[in-house]
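Proteins fold reproducibly. Take a tokenised chain:

. . .
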Amino acid sequence: MSKVEKKFFLKSEVRVEALVNQWYAWLYTVSPAAAARYFVQRQIPLLKSYLKMPKLHSAGARSSKLEGGNFVDLAEEHIDECQVLLNELLSQQNTLNLSEALHDLNRLLQSHPAESSLTDIYPAIPEPLKGYVELTFDMFNNLNYRLIEALLYQSDYYRTDRQSLSLDLNQHTRAFTLSTPRVELPGYHWQVAFNDERVDKLFRAEEESLTWPEIKTILSVSEEDEEKVRTLFTYERSTNKRGANINRSVRQGELQCHYFGHACVLLEAKGKSILVDPVISYYEKTQPDRLCLGDLPAHIDYVLITHGHMDHLNLETLLRIRYKVGTVVVPATTNGQLQDPSMKLMLENCGFNNVIALDNCESIFFLKVLFRPFLFSVNMPI
């Protein structure tokens, strides 16, 4: 008779950071055109500055008066790792070319008079952008362009092989996500595309156990990383909840509202749920008694995103709960503007299958009574 194989659950306190090129992933580092400019105008200069003046950066990052400033929060001992990362970024020629082409296109349009013919300008579009932009006039005959963002996601400018997840149990204070690359990774660094179905299999393991061979296959675990990965799992399903006594009433007409911190609110009524701007804390005994990931329902009908800032459209939380989310609702953006990337396209390319973009005052009807907390709306009973 064969021995019953032990099964493991993912620990609820495992922290995850979604990364692109070892920088914290958000709308401006995922969307191809915005990411290219952000890459060249912010990430590369920050690394170069740190490598010249590591002590200044370390001191600035630790100053309460300069909190949130442009300082790489890494000790001087990480110079070599940052140099390796900088060399890697500078070798990504496609991204550099796209950034330069966007800069050159802006200068090209500014140098042409308003009455210029688009037919004359199209041949001068920088080569890396040909086929990815449409030239336009605004109502005052000023030249402009529209990015065909969906095609950029299908091109070599969008590289999922640069995406990864960092998994660890450290309850450390994190370095500021916008200024500090993750070269110091205390846990397991998993090279995986955000849209990979294995991401859902991993986070579902908080509720559905896996054998060790299954875990090794999902996470592509090498022998040298086995012990590190084992610490992320436990034999017993986690019971870590802060709001264990949440009364999820099914009484008709009763609306319940649960506050998870920052802008995150869970609304429940008549067996339906809406989660707004999910940025949800991990379970920590030392923290104030507020709701955490373990307090979410088994299924979330709608996730509602109000805008694209990383503390509202947060991939760290969204990827963690993707397997239990029905539909994501986001605001419609300005269609092809570099400064306003499509949240819908980003989420679809990060593995979310049902994403709806609503314009101002548009509604989704899934129950009878209107619930309208934002310029776009969702209907549920109250």
Notes: The CA atoms of residues 158 and 372 lie 35 Å apart. Residues 32-52 form the longest helix (21 residues). The chain has a mean pLDDT of 88.
